[in-house]
Specification:
Chain lengths: 130, 148
């Protein structure tokens, strides 16, 4: 939960990762007062359904997942809402993958493993675009 | 056959994982070659299949004690068997994914397969594997790289 109690959350965050630990870690570590976690999905297909239901403004997106991978999911989410802000959070560290995700509609890329500070800095940078 | 620089990629991936995730350094022992097709495993193993430009497997294997403390260092309070299995798969996924920085996009990694409580089931696809011993706090683990 955000520590800054001075401002109410105004943006909805959805977390997509096939690892429960990472989903919980992002929820626990994100300290952006404007963000409120509205749901978490463990694969791309589940994410699309949850996205339609909860209409988040911001999404953190893993890439290597079963069912539907993250790049395909990014494309689907952007097709539903072109204004969604997507931060890819992935271990795939090659530049080509980051460029590909950005070209498909993602707005930022954070490489795993990450510190709490790196996560929050990446989210802040993403929200600066909002 | 792995080149020295390629082994270094995995060594750096392993040390970076512990340093970044726990803010505590791990030390890595000298990597060694196993030629009998049996590089060995601990109680929990996260295994990644590699395809594309290289073929084979990368696995991270560790005892429960290490993985429990690792979870706790990551502020995770749920140290259930499910979460331990999730973690060992995530470590393998992260180190393998990070290797694409050097190996490139065509180093294709699978989602993790986790083998728990049955170390004998962990098998290398080829006779030659490189074992990278990892020591963190008082615990030992290993990263095994078996690529054509």
């Amino acid at each position: 939960m955000p520590m800054d109690g001075q401002s109410k959350p105004s943006l909805k965050l959805m977390i997509v990762d096939d690892s429960n630990i990472i989903r919980r870690r992002i929820e626990r570590s994100q300290q952006i007062a404007r963000l409120e976690v509205v749901g978490a999905a463990s694969n791309g297909r589940e994410a699309v359904e949850l996205f339609r239901r909860t209409k988040p403004d911001v999404v953190t997106m893993d890439l290597t997942m079963p069912e539907m991978d993250g790049v395909e999911c990014v494309q689907e989410l952007v097709a539903i809402n072109s204004k969604v802000l997507i931060l890819v959070v992935s271990a795939l560290a090659d530049k080509a993958t980051a460029v590909d995700a950005i070209e498909k509609g993602a707005n930022g890329f954070l490489c795993k493993p990450f510190t709490d500070r790196q996560l929050n800095d990446a989210l802040e940078e993403l929200l600066a675009e909002a | 056959m792995l080149k020295e620089a390629e082994i270094r990629t995995f060594v750096e991936g392993a040390t970076n994982y512990f340093e970044t995730s726990t803010q505590q350094s791990a030390t890595v022992g000298s990597p060694y070659l196993v030629t009998d097709g049996n590089p060995g495993a601990y109680e929990y193993t996260g295994l990644i299949g590699i395809s594309g430009s290289r073929k084979g497997i990368v696995y991270f294997s560790a005892p429960r004690g290490m993985l429990t403390v690792l979870l706790m260092r990551m502020q995770e309070t749920d140290t259930s068997d499910e979460n331990i299995k999730d973690l060992v798969g995530e470590v393998a996924n992260t180190i393998s994914g990070n290797a694409r920085r050097d190996f490139g996009k065509n180093f294709v990694i699978s989602v993790p397969v986790v083998i728990a409580h049955d170390a004998d089931k962990v098998a290398a696809p080829h006779r030659r594997s490189y074992v990278i011993p990892i020591n963190w706090r008082t615990h030992s683990a290993k990263l095994v790289v078996c690529l054509e």
